[in-house]
Structure formats: structure tokens, C-alpha cells
Amino acid sequence: MAPRIVDNHTTDSYRVNVIGTNSPVLVVLEGDQHPPRMGPIEASALVRYTREDGLAEALRGADALFLYDFQSSALRDVWSSADRLRWVHVAAAGVDPVLFPELRESQVVLTNSRGVFDGPIAEYVLGLILALAKDFAHTIELQRQGRWLHRESERIAGARVLVVGTGPIGRAIARMLRAVGMQVTGMGRRSQADDPDFGTVRPSAELVRWLPEMDYVVAVAPLTEQTKGMFDEAAFAAMKPGARFVNVGRGALMDTSALVAALRDGRLAGAALDVFETEPLPDDSPLWNLPGVLVSPHMSGDFVGWRDTLVEVFADNFQRWQTGRPLRNVVDKQLGYVPSRGV
């Protein structure tokens, strides 16, 4: 049955607010939650709120799409319904779920929410590194057991860390880690000397060459054809014995089975993982119980108020779009991210 269309009320598949007939038509893919603070946008556009099952119908005649459900890949399946679409905005920094060939080759402009998560993820990475170096997980477990077991912990000052991914999030991580005395090197598409955040940037083609020198490796690169699976068996085998791996980028950057093998054979001392090839992480994954592994549910950037901030970023771009001004955070659809220095 076709969805009912009712002004500002929930329907079978989507909701709309009806204003002037000359107003732009905006589709908002909601996911499990309705985006907050949409009032100013609703005042100037015909907004169709939908979930995945209503996306095809909602897209017909729509000018713009706000992917508030940023993990959804449903757009590809209903692309033929996007008969008037000119702009897609993703409420995330990563846009890999929508970089299918038809969108890449179209004239549709793609923007993301770059800048929202830089600081929060940098703080989270610092927390993960401290947790690994100071063995906090073991301390908490011993406390639960009521055991008094004195141990020594490691210093992070002076430790060498490779940040793989030199976009804004990687740069925020580099600044945070340098502030606590870590020796940071960046890795991006091109080499660079005297970088203000990383000091030195190595080219990603030389990943295996530089891994043996690093105490910590932080993966935060965007997911592209070039970066998919870059942390494979050869990469983990090249890492310094006793090194630790942190992934806050994309789960598909790593070969999970190769990581598990490196952890089980003792080559790596530990890992802190916030993203996974399959999410949620399956119940039978060995990562849940491997010693020295911290697992978190893709939350490194999700600070209190992040949903409001995502809508604010979109609202600013929406106003720019309506008034013909340049949009912020325009993604290069061939590269798969917003180009910036050193990426």
C-alpha cells in the first residue's frame, strides 16, 4: 500500500510538512531517530521524513537528500527514483555507504559533516592509548575480583605513533598526542616534510616500511578502494613486536582475521577497536575475549549533543544551498572524501 501523506504527522513510510508549492523538496532519511531542531528548515522547504522502506517514493521529485541515517546504503537500491535530485548531505565524515558508481558519475553534489567529530575522536584516541598503556581494563577486572595485584604501567611520552589518515580527524589526533609528548608521524597519499601537525607525513604506499618503527598505529583513513584492507597479514606481520593497533576509521580498513592471528601469536600487545568489518560485532567474534583488546560500539565521535551539531552543520549548508552560496565540505566523489592539505 502506498504511504499516506499527512501534514506533520507520521505516515506508513514518511512524514511531510506542506508549505509553498515553489519551495524546494527535501527528503530526510531518519533511521531510528528523528533529527532534532529541524524547525528552521521546515519553515523554508517541503520536508519529507522517511525511513528506508519509504525512500523510493519520497525521492520522487525531491531536490535534496539529508542522510541523517548516515550508515544506510539504501540510496543505491532506489537511485532510479531520484529523478530531480541535486544534492546529498551525509551526517557523518565518512561517505562510503553512498559512493556507488551511479552517484559518482552523476552531477549530484555530495557533502559531509566534516569537522563535527575531530576533537571528540582525538580525545577518544588519547583515552584508548592511555587505557592500553596503563592496563586499565585489567585493573577494573581485578577490582571486580577484589584482588590487590601490583603491576607497572607504561609511559606514553616518547612513544612513537603512526596516524594513518591525514584529514582533519587525523590532524586533531596528531595534535592531541603530540601535546602529551608522543612522537607522531602521519601517513597520507603524499609525503610531506615540516607538516604543522604531524611533523613528517609518509606516503601510504610505504606503510609496511614504516610500521616496524611504531609503538602505536592509529587507523583513521577514509575507506576507499586504495585503503580497503590496507591492514592485512603483511601489515600486522611488519608491526613492531609489542606494538598496539587502534582503529577509529572504518572496520574494512583491516583484515579482522589477520588482526586476530597477530594478537593470538603475541606479535601485537593489544588493540583498541571502535569500528569493525561487521557491525554490530558478532557474538562469536574472538575480539570480545582476546587479552589486551578493547571493543567499543562505533562511538568514538558521539559526544553529548552530537546529533544537534550534525543538524546545525546541515542547516548551515542548506541555507547556503538555497541562497546559491558555495557549500561547505564538498566531497570529491572520485577520491571519496573532502580534499585537504596532505591527504
Automatic annotation (TrEMBL):
Query: Where does the D-isomer specific 2-hydroxyacid dehydrogenase catalytic domain lie?
Result: 52-331
Q: Which residues form the D-isomer specific 2-hydroxyacid dehydrogenase NAD-binding domain?
A: 126-300
| Signal peptide limits | none
User: Which GO molecular-function terms appear in the entry?
Assistant: NAD binding; oxidoreductase activity, acting on the CH-OH group of donors, NAD or NADP as acceptor
Give the InterPro entries listed for this entry: D-isomer_2_OHA_DH_cat_dom, D-isomer_DH_CS, D-isomer_DH_NAD-bd, NAD(P)-bd_dom_sf
Classification via Pfam families: 2-Hacid_dh, 2-Hacid_dh_C
Q: Does the keyword Oxidoreductase apply?
A: yes
Superkingdom as given in the UniProt entry = Bacteria
Keyword list, A-Z:
NAD, Oxidoreductase
The record's family statement is: Belongs to the D-isomer specific 2-hydroxyacid dehydrogenase family.
Please report the name of this protein according to its UniProt entry: 2-hydroxyacid dehydrogenase
Q: Source species, please? A: Amycolatopsis taiwanensis
